[in-house]
Amino acid sequence: MSEARGSTRSRTFKGGSIIFGMAAAIDCIIRNMSETGAALEVESPVGIPDEFTLLVKPDFVKRHCRVAWRSPKRIGVAFV
Questions:
Q1: Does residue 3 fall inside a structural domain?
Q2: Largest separation between any pair of C-alpha atoms in the chain
């Protein structure tokens, strides 16, 4: 199986917030990340839009994301 990602992801365990709309924020755990995307662990992907801003804690770095895939507890995103 070939790798579809643009770069290799490194395992991590950082906190994050999925931000969309005027005040909506959903906490998540960033399980792996690269220069081009990340895998986010969430309670439920229901209600999370296809595009949002990811706030990486404690760095307070914001990345605009587009959802690449969803599973019951994780979301794969590409940084745009």
A1: no
A2: 40
What is residue 60's DSSP assignment?
T
Q: Which CATH number do you get for residue 28?
A: 2.40.10.220
Q: Which of 26, 28, 29, 33 is nearest to 11 (CA)?
A: 33
The yes-or-no verdict on residue 5 having pLDDT over 70 is no
Q: Which of 23, 77, 74, 72 is nearest to 51 (CA)?
A: 77
| Strand ranges inside 1-80, DSSP E | 10-20, 24-33, 37-41, 51-56, 61-70, 74-79
56 domain-assigned: yes
pLDDT by residue (tens digit) across 23-80?
Answer: 779 999 999 999 999 999 999 999 999 999 999 998 899 999 999 999 999 999 999 9
Q: What is the DSSP letter of 23?
A: T
